[in-house]
Design goal:
With about 280 residues, this protein is of the alpha+beta class. It has 9 helices and 9 strands. The strands form 2 sheets. The chain has a 7-stranded mixed sheet, with helices on both faces.
């Protein structure tokens, strides 16, 4: 099975992925499990360095990936997939000057898939009013590549909210601009009340198992179908869509933008409102 999502390819290629997922899911103390996970990755790569001398140079990169994957597992393995038409509309929308005052995300940690551009592990740090991002390109650990021998680029970034977005965009290499812009736009879209997140399975999943996992009345059947799909390596996906975008054509005469609207509740502040491209 060709795996479309980087998070699946990570789980299939890293020999420690399953153990890291278990550690993060079962642990009570997040800091302790991070240290254990980092040590596990370091030991494995130091052992691999006996055959691949360059493996030791990858320890810090792989530890960062392992932590992002572990957080993904710890918070429900949620993967958000930006609908193609939503991505097109975002591509024709100027980034807001600042992140939202308040961030509404589907989980404390999840994977945001941006189709042909790649994706990002997103980790919310509400105590610091920040989001940690780990961006990976679409060809991350693609079939036929040797992840241990080949250089695999990723980009770690901390974005504060409601911090200015010009700063992070200016500090990253041009090759990351399109993906980072889409990810930041996707996070802004998640604050919009009209956004729909429809839970389902990836398109390549077998229809009979999907039907079983979606059984309307039998919980046992749903559990069995879900187990079959997960064991076969298929990913459950939350498809992000928004009313109004689906009806838009492929061409836009006017660029979209974000405007701020004051909030009248006790917390005050403002929220972002998306004015879609037309």
């Amino acid at each position: 099975m060709e795996m479309n999502y980087a998070v699946q390819r990570y789980a299939a290629t890293r020999p420690w992925a399953r153990r890291v997922g278990q550690l993060y899911t079962q642990a009570v103390q997040a800091e302790a499990v991070q240290q254990e996970g980092m040590a596990l990755v370091a030991r494995e790569l130091e052992r691999a360095a006996q055959v691949y001398p360059a493996a030791t140079a990858r320890i810090a990169i792989e530890q960062r990936l392992a932590d992002a994957y572990g957080q993904f597992c710890r918070h429900g393995r949620l993967m958000a997939h930006l609908d193609d038409k939503l991505m097109l509309a975002l591509a024709h929308t100027r980034l807001p000057g600042n992140m939202p005052d308040r961030l509404t995300l589907p989980a404390e940690a999840f994977y945001l898939h941006a189709a042909a551009l790649g994706g990002a592990f997103v980790m919310h740090l509400p105590a610091s009013n920040a989001v940690a991002l780990l961006l990976v390109h679409a060809d991350f650990s693609a079939t036929g590549s040797d992840w241990l021998a080949d250089a695999e680029h990723s980009l770690a970034l901390l974005v504060n909210y409601p911090g200015e977005l010009a700063a992070p965009m200016a500090t990253v290499a041009a090759e990351w601009h399109a993906l980072l812009s889409t990810v930041l736009g996707g996070l802004a879209v998640m604050t919009q009340p009209k956004l729909e997140m429809l839970r389902g399975w990836e398109e390549a999943a077998p229809a009979d198992a999907v039907a079983l996992a979606s059984h309307p009345t039998c919980a046992k059947s749903r559990k069995k179908g879900r187990s079959q799909l997960l064991q076969a390596g298929f990913q459950e996906v939350s498809y992000c869509r928004m009313a109004g975008v689906a009806e838009a054509g492929t061409g836009y005469a006017n660029q979209g933008y974000w405007r701020r609207q004051a909030l009248s509740d006790a917390q005050g502040g403002s929220r972002l409102v998306w004015v879609m491209p037309r």
